[in-house]
Amino acid sequence: MIELGILFGLFLVTALALIFVLLRRRNGRTENADGLLIEQERRLQAQSDRVTYGIGAASGHLPTAHDPYRR
User: Fold this and answer.
1) Half-sphere exposure in the Cβ direction for 53 (13 Å, CA)
2) Which of 8, 34, 54, 69 has its CA 20 to 30 A from that of 18?
3) What are the average pLDDT values for consecutive 10-residue runs of the chain, which has 71 residues?
4) Is the dihedral of CA 45, 27, 24, 16 positive or negative?
5) pTM of this prediction?
6) CA–CA separation, 18 vs 65, rounded Å?
């Protein structure tokens, strides 16, 4: 029974520590012009990569067991 109390106590301490870290991060102002520009550039690059390297980009059809390129 004591072990169960210790286990739940550790869970509670861990949860409180995570809540404290998340609330502390939210209070700090981290959005500046450079950070927003970097985020925008990476978002545009990710969108471009999804179009370039998507499933249909290589052959125009979905790869299946009957793929004509698999012989």
Assistant:
1) 6
2) 34
3) 93 95 71 81 89 66 56 49
4) negative
5) 0.39
6) 46
Distances (CA, A) of 5 to 2, 14, 16: 5, 14, 16
What share of residues in the chain are helix, strand, coil (percent, to 5)? 70, 0, 30
Compute the distance between CA of residue 15 and CA of residue 9 in angstroms, rounded to an integer.
10
> Dihedrals φ, ψ of 54, to 5°?
-70, 170
pLDDT of residue 55: 65
CA nearest to 61, candidates 51, 52, 69: 69
* Residues 17, 14: Cα–Cα separation, whole Å: 5
